[in-house]
Amino acid sequence: MVEFTWMTGGKQGSGIDVALGLFSRVMMSFGYNIYGYREYFSNIKGMHSFFTVRVSDKKIASIPSKVDMAIFFDNESVLGEKNERGEAVHDGHIRDIKEGGVLIVDSKLDKNKIGRQDITILDIDFDAIITSVAKKLGKRTSEVVIAKNIICVAASCYLIGLDEAATVEAIREEFAKKPKSVVDLDISVSNETVDYLKKRSETIAKETLNHVKSKGIEPIKKLEDVPSTTQLYMEGFASTAIGKAIAGCKMQIYYPITPASDESVFIESHPELGIRVVQPESELAVLAMTTGAAIAGARASSSTSGPGLSLMSETVTWAGMNEVPIVLVDHQRGAPATGQPTRTEQPDLMFAVHQGHGDFGRIILAPGDIEESIKMTAEAFNYAEVYQLPVIVLGEKAISQGSMNIDKKTITNIKDSYKINRGKLVENVDSGYKRFKFTKDNISERILPGNPNAIFWLTGDEHDEWGHVSEDPNNRIKMMEKRNGKYQQILGDLKQEEKFTLTGNPEEADLLLVTWGGPVTAAREAISGKKVALLQIKLIHPLPSEVNEILKKAKKVAILEENITAQLKQHIASVTGFVIPNEILKYNGRLVRYDEVADAIDRVIKGEKKVVLNGY
């Protein structure tokens, strides 16, 4: 079995993203599964940013707290950094390297400052490599220094025993749309890095390199069965975009906000998806346009994050009042207010369930990984149109900023099995059409504007079956019950796998762990080898009735969430009356790691009621 975790980092704007993509593509070309995650400060350029990539011969979608190898663009990534007031901006990544691991640093760094005797430390002269390449290509060093990311990837791949040709091929693939001069420069830097290391292994540092290869990191070999031809490298924000394309979404209206903007930029850069992207002047305009497009017949959507979702609240209630099928994807981030724009959290569950003033029907979904994000985002459009209400998909930075390999067949299978269901959308009606007609299932026929037999009114006021403003108390009761009376139909229609996933037997397990969204992948791996059952709730609202029965059967129950108030726990208690007694919470803005969840599970089983995770 192969398990290897790699980290790289430096200042934002120095090519960290490229390093992640290159290293991941090299590993995929050797047949391995990868999962990567990005951490970065909320500024455009200059602050610290880093990536962690896990490599395995088994399917993975989470990362551990410690890495096997780390290589950094700058010394601040190693030792940490302070601001002008002397306060720590970050503590550096020395602590993140496992015992027996490898740290590769710039030769300018004094290795005595590192203070780790239990790891292998190898220094590389970045300046020498850059100067040599610049001289050979007749360029200034300032033109080559940007390729430090290539040095990091090439050095790492060489030290773990990979053929340098794989790195070169990954460069060609990553920069296929770049000018030839850029590709040639990066290939030259990669080759120069390998030559530099080969020379060192023959002269001054042979013993160090041998230790890296034999003691620190086991050489990674190409797997016999390499599925690379069917594997795609996918970043999380692309999953919701692809889900929208599969669903036949025609309008994506958004206002820039971290971390949601990446999804809209991806759609805009892929016109083959067939989705028109519009960026108006504000979040208020965004949802007004989204709602208008849906009324006109387009499958329409927006993507935002917590602050944007807050600003959209009034129009969400208008869509709820008029039973307009819209889909919103909320890529959650640290809150409240501006909060932590570039960190992950799950602060919006209760807000999404109760968003806006008044009571009206809505559906809240929470995918747990990239594959589920594709499928559940696509299904959201069917739910919106069948039940004629707003649907909110609760994503989060933990998913949207993750990256992994996914089989093309997986996407093809989702696409082939997906059937567009527009519900009671009709083309023709007889005269006397009632847009909000009272029906047994509380869902009326819907027709697009422009039909001479179907004149109807849409208003934010309470209305009658035609849409006329009405203050009649009996009509008010009927309309309130109509808009809020769709939940039993929804819960009855949806299959179990659309509502929740139960792994293991709660009655026999020492613990039933309940979770949702981003922590799901870490939880799946954390329970391996333990007598623990896992309940992943996908349909947050309306809450599946089966949840209460499952909870009551368990010996011990704990909730796992990325917020301080255990919002899913609160929601479950308000609906079922069952109060989950144990909590595993993380709210420092950082990704939930599978090993810290495994440790927390053991602590809860032993009797701790509340465990707060603080892994970086």
From TrEMBL:
Has UniProt tagged this entry with the keyword Glycoprotein? no
Q: Which GO terms describe its molecular function?
A: oxidoreductase activity, acting on the aldehyde or oxo group of donors
Domain called Pyruvate flavodoxin/ferredoxin oxidoreductase pyrimidine binding: residue spans: 246-481
> What biological-process GO terms show up in the record?
organic acid metabolic process; response to oxidative stress; sulfur compound biosynthetic process
**Pyruvate/ketoisovalerate oxidoreductase catalytic domain sequence ranges:** 13-184
* Keyword list, A-Z: Oxidoreductase, Pyruvate
Residues crossing the lipid bilayer are none
Under the heading InterPro entries, the entry gives: 2-oxoacid/accept_OxRdtase_asu (IPR022367), Pyruvate:ferred/Flavod_OxRd (IPR050722), Pyrv/ketoisovalerate_OxRed_cat (IPR019752), Pyrv_Fd/Flavodoxin_OxRdtase_N (IPR002880), Pyrv_flavodox_OxRed_cen (IPR002869), THDP-binding (IPR029061), Transketo_C/PFOR_II (IPR009014)
Annotated signal sequence range: none
Query: Which SUPFAM superfamilies does this one have?
Result: Pyruvate-ferredoxin oxidoreductase, PFOR, domain III, Thiamin diphosphate-binding fold (THDP-binding), TK C-terminal domain-like
NCBIfam families per record: OAFO_sf (TIGR03710)
| Protein name as it appears in the record | Pyruvate flavodoxin/ferredoxin oxidoreductase domain protein
